[in-house]
Amino acid sequence: MADAVTVPVSLGERAYDIHIGAGVIDRLGAGVRDLFPRGRALIVTDEHVAALHLDRARASLAAAGIAHEAIVLPPGEGSKSFPVLERLMSRLLDHRIERRDAVVALGGGVIGDLAGFAAAIAKRGVDFVQVPTTLLSQVDSSVGGKTGINTAHGKNLVGAFHQPRLVLADIALLETLPKRELLAGYAEVVKYGLLGDADFFDWLEAHGPALVAGDRTARIEAVRRSVTAKAGIVSRDERETGERALLNLGHTFGHAFEAATGFGPRLLHGEGVAIGMRLAFDLSVRLGLCPGQDAVRARRHMAAVGLPVAAADIEGAADLAAELAPAALIEHMAQDKKVKDGKLTFILARRIGDAFITQDVPIEAVDAVLQAA
Ligand SMILES: NC(=O)c1ccc[n+]([C@@H]2O[C@H](COP(=O)([O-])OP(=O)(O)OC[C@H]3O[C@@H](n4cnc5c(N)ncnc54)[C@H](O)[C@@H]3O)[C@@H](O)[C@H]2O)c1
Ligand SMILES: O=C(O)C(=O)C[C@@H](O)[C@H](O)[C@H](O)COP(=O)(O)O
Ligand SMILES: [Zn+2]
């Protein structure tokens, strides 16, 4: 495991480490033994991940003498819902979860967000460990403590901040991930370059194709740089009272597209974020805040790796004309958690690598970029 690296998240008494590398899943047992002396873990995972990687997680726990059970849920965004949360809570209580047990979220962002939220509310709070198995969850969702579910009103509207005790990002697990899912995660990697690190964006233009093709060194580097950026922001603004909203670049638009397409397989979260980042740059250009060439460059790189960048790229877009109409999308945005005094908040850019937060965006301009998309 020569290439493994560790990134600390500085959060005082709730500080934790992110281990990144091929094979770090084998540290699960020792990690749980060190952090949870009671020696019991409840693994939450989905059917796809269980078939591929659950045995490896169990073996590590068993080798460390950790008693454990596994709860296997349906895959997909639909599981971030009240019915599946209720099912998961029942299973955790059936297993007589105790406060000193470890919940282990083994899966992508859906499992991490759902299991993290279940851990936050079970018996008023049980600690948990993230073992992210998608690129998206390794670079983003496993770090920072945002947990929750979607509701009929919109994306991530019920949840809690609940930090994990440990994150094990095993990049070898990405080798079983479908290409479309990998690309969706790559959108969140691009986000870190666009929002605050122009050098990283340059690096992605040079190394992104190799990363997508499977280069392990490039994957470790991309996960390391992404979570280092996220850890810095989260340690300064854990509860999103300011700077953390930068991590929402592309999400005001993206979440509206996800809601409009029913939180289903037509549009993955990362795909919505890619379209949303393209629109955030278009909006910045329209408002005279950002040079047009930066918007072109951002869009070109995402399209070049195979990400959707326009509403028309969404599967079955032609049948969704009413749902994807600008007025319908703007209506979804009204539920965004960044709304303040009834006003939408946007993350815009002065250039690649320099994003900022603003409420000063005329709705006509938002409508215009959506019409043009
Ligand atoms: N909490 C946060 O800070 C945060 C950040 C970004 C995104 N998110 C959330 O994350 C979710 C998206 O996460 P995601 O993109 O990981 O999706 P996901 O969890 O649905 O996983 C994608 C698919 O890949 C499968 N899978 C997972 N790992 C695999 C592997 N190693 N091999 C083969 N298949 C595998 C899953 O079963 C699923 O079908 C969204 O709900 C989004 O809102 C949260
Ligand atoms: O960690 C954060 O903060 C983020 O905004 C990361 C986003 O990529 C992620 O999709 C997050 O779940 C969005 O949060 P929300 O508060 O807009 O629901
Ligand atoms: Zn996101």
From TrEMBL:
<dbReference type="GO" id="GO:0005737">
    <property type="term" value="C:cytoplasm"/>
</dbReference>
<keyword id="KW-0520">NAD</keyword>
<feature type="binding site">
    <location>
        <begin position="133"/>
        <end position="134"/>
    </location>
    <ligand>
        <name>NAD(+)</name>
    </ligand>
</feature>
<dbReference type="InterPro" id="IPR030963">
    <property type="entry name" value="DHQ_synth_fam"/>
</dbReference>
<dbReference type="InterPro" id="IPR050071">
    <property type="entry name" value="Dehydroquinate_synthase"/>
</dbReference>
<dbReference type="GO" id="GO:0003856">
    <property type="term" value="F:3-dehydroquinate synthase activity"/>
</dbReference>
<feature type="binding site">
    <location>
        <position position="188"/>
    </location>
    <ligand>
        <name>Zn(2+)</name>
    </ligand>
</feature>
<dbReference type="GO" id="GO:0046872">
    <property type="term" value="F:metal ion binding"/>
</dbReference>
<dbReference type="InterPro" id="IPR056179">
    <property type="entry name" value="DHQS_C"/>
</dbReference>
<keyword id="KW-0170">Cobalt</keyword>
<feature type="binding site">
    <location>
        <position position="146"/>
    </location>
    <ligand>
        <name>NAD(+)</name>
    </ligand>
</feature>
<dbReference type="InterPro" id="IPR016037">
    <property type="entry name" value="DHQ_synth_AroB"/>
</dbReference>
<feature type="binding site">
    <location>
        <begin position="109"/>
        <end position="113"/>
    </location>
    <ligand>
        <name>NAD(+)</name>
    </ligand>
</feature>
<keyword id="KW-0057">Aromatic amino acid biosynthesis</keyword>
<dbReference type="GO" id="GO:0009073">
    <property type="term" value="P:aromatic amino acid family biosynthetic process"/>
</dbReference>
<feature type="domain" description="3-dehydroquinate synthase C-terminal">
    <location>
        <begin position="185"/>
        <end position="339"/>
    </location>
</feature>
<feature type="binding site">
    <location>
        <position position="155"/>
    </location>
    <ligand>
        <name>NAD(+)</name>
    </ligand>
</feature>
<feature type="binding site">
    <location>
        <position position="269"/>
    </location>
    <ligand>
        <name>Zn(2+)</name>
    </ligand>
</feature>
<dbReference type="GO" id="GO:0009423">
    <property type="term" value="P:chorismate biosynthetic process"/>
</dbReference>
<dbReference type="InterPro" id="IPR030960">
    <property type="entry name" value="DHQS/DOIS_N"/>
</dbReference>
<feature type="domain" description="3-dehydroquinate synthase N-terminal">
    <location>
        <begin position="71"/>
        <end position="182"/>
    </location>
</feature>
<feature type="binding site">
    <location>
        <position position="251"/>
    </location>
    <ligand>
        <name>Zn(2+)</name>
    </ligand>
</feature>
<dbReference type="GO" id="GO:0008652">
    <property type="term" value="P:amino acid biosynthetic process"/>
</dbReference>
<protein>
    <recommendedName>
        <fullName>3-dehydroquinate synthase</fullName>
        <ecNumber>4.2.3.4</ecNumber>
    </recommendedName>
</protein>
<keyword id="KW-0963">Cytoplasm</keyword>
<keyword id="KW-0479">Metal-binding</keyword>
<dbReference type="Pfam" id="PF01761">
    <property type="entry name" value="DHQ_synthase"/>
</dbReference>
<keyword id="KW-0547">Nucleotide-binding</keyword>
<keyword id="KW-0862">Zinc</keyword>
<dbReference type="GO" id="GO:0000166">
    <property type="term" value="F:nucleotide binding"/>
</dbReference>
<comment type="similarity">
    <text>Belongs to the sugar phosphate cyclases superfamily. Dehydroquinate synthase family.</text>
</comment>
<comment type="function">
    <text>Catalyzes the conversion of 3-deoxy-D-arabino-heptulosonate 7-phosphate (DAHP) to dehydroquinate (DHQ).</text>
</comment>
<keyword id="KW-0028">Amino-acid biosynthesis</keyword>
<dbReference type="Pfam" id="PF24621">
    <property type="entry name" value="DHQS_C"/>
</dbReference>
<keyword id="KW-0456">Lyase</keyword>
<comment type="pathway">
    <text>Metabolic intermediate biosynthesis; chorismate biosynthesis; chorismate from D-erythrose 4-phosphate and phosphoenolpyruvate: step 2/7.</text>
</comment>
